[in-house]
Amino acid sequence: MMSASTPKEKRTELLANSLVASLEKRNFEAYFCPTGKDAVQKVLELIPEDSLISWGGSQTIRELGVTKALHEGNYRVIDRDLGKNPQEVYELHRQGLLSDYYITSTNAISEDGILVNVDGNGNRVAALCFGPKNVIVMCGINKVAQNLDCAISRARSYAAPINSMRFMGNTPCATTGKCHDCTSSDCICAQVVLTRFCKPAKRIKVILIGEELGF
Known about the structure:
Elements: H1 7-25, E1 29-33, H2 36-46, E2 52-55, H3 59-64, H4 66-72, E3 76-78, H5 86-96, E4 101-104, E5 108-110, E6 115-119, H6 123-129, E7 134-140, E8 144-145, H7 148-166, H8 172-176, E9 191-195, E10 204-209
Parallel strand pairs: 1-10, 2-3, 2-4, 4-7, 5-8, 7-10
Antiparallel strand pairs: 5-6, 6-9
């Protein structure tokens, strides 16, 4: 790994290395990749050929080209993006819970290693909690928050409105850009999940990336 050359890169490297140590104390397997290209290579290193793979709706993994790389590799893929209608998408979500590797991002992560995620339908947080044999979380450095309260605020007040707009949800936050703690039928914060410890150990593998990615 090349040494950081600018103050911003140095700060990112120091923060990431500290966070990797915090994650490992919580039984996560954790890595720091300075660039998105490094992160994609790490994913391909972690996943054995012929593995059954699925993923969530993460913008991060799409920005990085991870889904394209997996389609082009020697893997068995469950791609929820190929569902022709809501029922097919739902069935692909369910199948993904039995995958060998499930790839996602996180809405936020505290500096002491707690993942924070909000979800509308629950398929992504369900996979984090139980189901797939392994979960790979790809997280841009922009999603790291100082503490748990800041991470929850980031997930609900920043990531949720943007994702609601992205998925064309009919929610107050999609109209105003801020959280209203709503009970809309399209609520994207139906589940708020804190993952503070990895069980079994190393099932969840977190790849921190020294770039701003996703929302």
